[in-house]
Amino acid sequence: MSDSQFLSYHAMTKMDDGYMPVASALLTTDTVKILIAANRYGLTHLTFKPKQGDNWPEREIQLAEGTQTDMVQAEQHLAQAQQQLTEYFSGQLKQFNLALAPVGTPFQHQVWQALIKQPFGHACSYSDIATAINNPKAVRAVGSANGANDIAIIIPCHRIIGKSGTLTGYAYGLELKQLLLTLESAAS
């Protein structure tokens, strides 16, 4: 059984009309600051804001102009995400129920769907994901798709570890990756 259930998963490419986020919000927890963004379809981005001493660059999120309806729908998605992320970081939430609208290629969407199915508190390897999408030789491509994920935590790219069980790269640093894995392990 998947650890994640979603209201909708709207797979978008850059050619789709309305793919850009139109609203954003900042969520601050005891340990991290998170910037989230959404469009009318769902959450488009979840990125961490670096603290002093972090050695990874801040990811910029560019917002587009939207209609009043677009803004209202995006803000509803942001409010739901903020509530569920607060519950996640307090150890009360193990399954997200959000509308997602990630932008990517069909292959990236296939990888991200496989990541979503990874159970809360359980890690896997790039090889495991490649096998799950019936493309066992695509290990490096899976790694690239994992790195292109703009919706961290909810599309749980932090759950990918080396085949030997060691921590591997994470866009936000291994310290944050370990923090997320520890949080999930303690709550499961």
Give a written overview of the molecule:
This protein is α+β, with helices and mostly antiparallel strands and 188 residues long. 34% of the residues lie in helices and 12% in strands. It has 5 helices and 5 strands; from the N terminus they run ββββαβαααα. It has helices spanning 68-89, 106-116, 126-132, 139-147, 174-187; strands spanning 8-9, 23-28, 33-38, 43-49, 99-100. The strands form 2 sheets. Strands 2-3-4 form a 3-stranded antiparallel sheet. A two-stranded parallel sheet has the order 1-5. Helix 2 (106-116) packs across helix 4 (139-147) and helix 3 packs across helix 4 (139-147). The longest helix has 22 residues, at 68-89. It is globular, with a radius of gyration of 16 Å.
Biggest sheet descriptor: 3 strands, antiparallel
Q: What is the arithmetic mean of pLDDT? A: 88
User: How many angstroms separate the termini?
Assistant: 15 Å
- Count the DSSP helices: 5
In angstroms, what is the radius of gyration? 16 Å
Tell me, briefly, the overall form. globular
Q: Please write the string of helix (H) and strand (E) elements.
A: EEEEHEHHHH
What is the topology?
Layout: E1 8-9, E2 23-28, E3 33-38, E4 43-49, H1 68-89, E5 99-100, H2 106-116, H3 126-132, H4 139-147, H5 174-187
Parallel strand pairs: 1-5
Antiparallel strand pairs: 2-3, 3-4
